[in-house]
Design a protein that fits this description.
This protein has about 170 residues and is an alpha/beta fold. Helices cover about 35% and strands about 30% of the residues.
């Protein structure tokens, strides 16, 4: 089974996954300068079980993976860019594969919490934003993914599991 950590930075999450599940193979995908910094440590720890690819995830993602993982990536981008990225992921997974999205989700009642602060930071720093659960569902659906399940995590974070929606 092959997992691609899209925009995975130094590969901390991918390393934890590979450490825990020794049968998995992983790919870290990020910008060239980020990938170059992560490559030596990941290769030293996991050898042939890991690859590090550099590129632009809006244009080209490694294909043939069972899972594409996006952890706190979508909130960096506006809806149009987030949709483009999700479409890239949906098109790059194998049939029966999954797109896993981990994001902080805004509460429906607009309460002042960590998610609201992150929303402000994303708008100011990147032009992106935090989203509510229905907004994330709409993005995944528009990208051709059906939500298989949502799982609450800690501090307002959620895991959304998307599968390629049947065509027709």
């Amino acid at each position: 089974m092959r997992v691609v950590d899209v925009g995975g930075g130094r590969g901390t999450l991918l390393a934890a996954i590979l450490q825990r599940w020794e049968h998995l193979h992983g790919v870290l995908f990020d910008l060239p300068h980020v990938a170059d910094r992560a490559r030596p440590e990941l290769a030293a720890r996991f050898g042939q079980r890991v690859q590090v690819h550099a590129g632009d995830f809006f244009v080209d993602l490694p294909g043939g993976a069972d899972v594409h993982l996006l952890r706190h990536v979508l909130h960096n981008w506006n809806d149009e860019q987030a949709l483009c990225l999700l479409r890239q992921c949906a098109g790059a997974i194998v049939p029966g594969g999954r797109v896993l999205v981990i994001e902080t989700i805004l509460a429906p009642d607009n309460r002042a919490d960590l998610a609201c602060m992150l929303d402000l930071e994303m708008m100011v720093l990147t032009g992106g934003r935090e989203r509510r659960r229905p907004e994330l569902r709409r993005l995944l659906t528009a990208a051709g993914l059906a939500i298989e399940r949502t799982v609450p995590m800690t501090s307002g974070g959620w895991l959304l599991v998307g599968v390629r929606a049947p065509s027709g």
